[in-house]
Write a structure and sequence with these properties.
Blueprint: E1 7-10, E2 13-16, H1 52-65
Antiparallel strand pairs: 1-2
């Protein structure tokens, strides 16, 4: 049987995040570990860490390079 589950590593022990129905107590298992990184928020991750002058420069570039939308035209 092959199954993918999510687990948390705490105090040196892997703790499953859901029930392991069908697996006997003390059963030997083969595990493959894959880290799951939380999804980032892109530019939102930069809030508070960019110097003001860098943030201002980024804003200036975005405003000059991208088309401005006039909501009254919709």
């Amino acid at each position: 049987m092959t199954r993918t589950i999510n687990a948390v590593y705490e105090a040196g022990v892997l703790r499953p995040l859901q029930s392991l129905d069908g697996i006997a107590e003390h059963a030997q298992l083969r595990l493959t570990i894959e880290s799951v990184e939380p999804a980032g928020n892109g530019l939102a991750d930069c809030i508070g860490i960019l110097p003001d002058e860098d943030a201002s420069e980024m804003r200036r570039i975005v405003e000059s390079e991208f088309e401005q939308v006039n909501l009254d035209e919709w």
